[in-house]
Structure formats: structure tokens, C-alpha cells
Write a structure and sequence with these properties.
Aspartate Aminotransferase, domain 1; about 375 residues; 4-stranded antiparallel β-sheet; Aspartate Aminotransferase, domain 2; 13 helices; about 40% helix; 7-stranded mixed β-sheet; 2 domains; alpha/beta
Length: about 375
């Protein structure tokens, strides 16, 4: 079935006001997502929240949709406020010892630096390495590796299946941040088998802030305790007429890391965007995104840019003129891109089209 991309684009009203090539900063909301939020609030008014337990049934259906998208079981998915929460859950739950090591890649997102640097006061060594030196940086004292599917500032994509297999053989935990690719590129958790995989939904998943999730492997769930403990921590929390009093017995599902009430409005928006993407098809979306990325790379080269990586949704280039100055000048022409660490970053999603790229090229010229 052919996708009518013009009809898809019509779902995104913000695109009428500008040439938007900055999904790596914020994804735009489709009308189906905002309609889902409005329907939730209308339902609250209509039923006075008497049906609130059914909202959790809806959340479980969203977990199932996430499982279909990234190839895991719904029970592996926990909803979180943002990706920082997931990494903090993992690093805060490990029994660190002096001499332990955390490894990340060069130019990674600051999340991967800050908590690891914070652990230095406990004697933990933190190593940042280019990928060429990654395997040598993993020593017998390495406890965890934290990397992204796609680097936010360069667009680099690490070979995750290869990396994951290497770390599994050595008993090293692997945390992957999929925020800069899930929704644009296909991801198969069953092939990568990370210990934790976090996605902040406000970028390529086209959701509002607050609609994020993480995969927690069954093996890690057996030994990683929740960092938030509340009324939904006990396994029988769905019986509000007789809630358990005393020490909670945790469920074996990843939802045990949620603790309390969920941010339902953003989750309903995420659910609507998910269904739209699943209906279009992850393979079609990836083909569309990567075709646009290749066209962007060509356009940047034609205008004198040195393209760093073009095998991901994030295309970055260096120009003689500073990236921040270029991004600001493009903004005055209502062409929205970003500057990151000296690179001009252009990130098109499936809602973009060839005309957007032509307008970028003309403006750069």
C-alpha cells in the first residue's frame, strides 16, 4: 500500500507556519494526538473520573503498542517522565564499589556524563571514548555502558547488536537511550537484548513531554529495586477498595518501577501517535526518513558543508561559518534547524518533504 505523504503531513498543523527540520529537538504533534488528549479530558468531565481504573487498561494497551514497535513484551515496559529517570533508576540502584568503571562514547548526550561523574565520589571511574577505542575501554572493572542509538550532536550510530553481544559475554550492563531514533528507525529489542532501553517520547515519537517509557529486561528486573515506591508498588494495587498495608510485594512486571499515578494525558497522545506510526508501518517510515536524510546530506555538501554522518535521521555538517550563526540566520527565514557542539544539525521526520529540503538549500545558498 502506497502512503500518501501529503495526507500524513496535513496531520501536523505546525508545519504550515515554518519549514521544520528539527525533530531531534522536538517532534511535532499530529492532530490525532491532541484529539486524544481532548477526548481524555472530555471523558473526565463526562464520567467524573469514576472509570479511572480503566485508564490503566488503556495504558496497558499502549504498552502493547510499544512492544509491537520495538519487539518486546508489554510486561517489559515501564512509563517514566523522561529518559533521565531511567538512567537514574539504573545507576542509583547498583551497588557501586571503588574501582568500578562506567563507559560512554565521545560527544554523548549529557545524561550519560552527569550521573557517571556524580559517582566519582564513590570511587567509580568514568571513561569517555571515541568508538574506535570503545572495546579497549571495556575492562574487567567495567560495570555499565551507557550509549545512544543515535548521537544527538553528530548523528553517529553504534552497531548495537555487536556492542550488546560483546558486553553480555563480559557481564557488563548495557543502557541504551533510544530517544533520537525510535519512531524514525526500526529497533528490535529482541535482537539487541540491552538491560535497559529508554525513550523520551517528545522527539521522534511525536508525543508531548512526560510521555516516555523504558524497557527493563526480565533479568535486570530480578535484581534492580524500584527508586520510587508508592501505592502502585504492591502487586495487587488494582484493588483500591482494599489496598495492601505493609511492605509491598513487587510485581515481576516493569510497571513496578512506576510507583504511583501516571501522566495519562501525555500517554493518550503517545498512544495516538503510536497507532498512526504502526498503521503507516515502521519500515515505510524508516525508508522515508532515510531518503530525506540522504537528500539533506547532498544539500549540505552542495553548499560547502562537511557532512559527518548521514546514515541516521540526524544529519550534521560543519561549515566555515559558525553553526550557531547559521542556525540563527535560517530561523529568520522560518527554517528551523539546530546547532550542536559546532555542528549544524538537520533532522527530518516522515512529515517532511522534498520542498522543505529545497527551501533549506536555497536559504543556505
Amino acid at each position: 500500500m502506497e502512503v500518501n505523504w501529503a495526507e500524513v503531513r496535513a496531520q501536523f498543523p505546525a508545519l504550515a507556519a515554518c519549514t521544520y527540520l528539527n525533530t531531534a529537538t522536538f517532534g511535532q504533534l499530529p492532530t490525532c494526538a491532541t484529539d486524544a488528549v481532548a477526548a481524555h479530558f472530555a471523558r473526565r468531565d463526562r464520567l467524573a473520573c469514576v472509570d479511572y481504573l480503566e485508564w490503566f487498561d488503556d495504558a496497558d494497551r499502549i504498552r502493547e503498542s510499544i512492544g509491537r514497535l520495538i519487539h518486546c513484551d508489554a510486561s517489559d515496559i515501564a512509563f517514566i517522565p523522561n529518559a533521565s529517570t531511567a538512567l537514574s533508576l539504573l545507576f542509583g540502584g547498583l551497588d557501586w564499589k571503588p574501582g568500578d568503571r562506567v563507559v560512554t562514547l565521545q560527544d554523548e548526550f549529557p545524561n550519560h556524563y552527569y550521573y557517571a561523574e556524580h559517582l566519582r565520589h564513590r570511587g567509580v571511574e568514568f571513561v569517555e571514548t571515541p568508538f574506535t577505542g570503545f572495546y579497549d575501554a571495556v575492562t574487567p572493572r567495567t560495570r555499565a555502558v551507557a550509549i545512544s542509538t543515535v548521537n544527538y550532536s553528530t548523528g553517529f550510530r553504534a552497531p548495537l547488536e555487536e556492542v550488546a553481544a560483546f558486553l553480555r559475554e563480559r557481564g557488563v550492563l548495557l543502557y541504551v537511550d533510544g530517544t533520537q531514533s525510535v519512531g524514525a528507525l526500526r529497533i528490535d529489542i529482541s535482537s539487541i537484548r540491552p538491560d535497559m532501553f529508554a525513550v523520551d517520547g517528545y522527539k521522534w515519537m511525536l508525543a508531548p513531554n512526560g510521555a516516555s517509557f523504558c524497557y527493563v529486561s526480565p533479568e535486570l528486573r530480578q535484581r534492580l529495586e524500584p527508586s520510587v515506591i508508592g501505592w502502585r508498588s504492591h502487586k495487587d494495587w488494582r484493588r483500591p477498595e482494599n489496598l495492601h498495608h505493609g511492605a509491598p510485594e513487587f510485581s515481576g512486571r516493569a510497571e513496578k518501577y512506576e510507583g504511583g499515578m501516571l501522566a495519562f494525558a501525555p500517554l493518550y497522545a503517545l498512544g495516538a501517535s503510536l497507532e498512526m506510526m504502526l498503521e503507516i508501518g515502521p519500515e515505510r517510515i524508516e525508508c522515508r526518513v532515510m531518503d530525506l536524510a540522504a537528500r539533506i546530506a547532498d544539500a549540505l555538501r552542495e553548499q560547502g558543508g562537511e557532512v559527518l554522518h548521514c546514515d541516521s535521521p540526524i544529519v550534521t555538517a560543519r561549515f566555515e561559518r559558525g553553526a550557531s550563526e547559521l542556525a540563527a540566520a535560517l530561523t529568520t527565514k522560518k527554517i528551523l534547524v539546530a546547532a550542536r557542539r559546532g555542528n549544524l544539525r538537520v533532522s527530518a521526520h516522515f512529515y517532511n518533504n522534498e520542498e522543505d529540503i529545497m527551501l533549506l538549500k536555497r536559504a543556505l545558498r
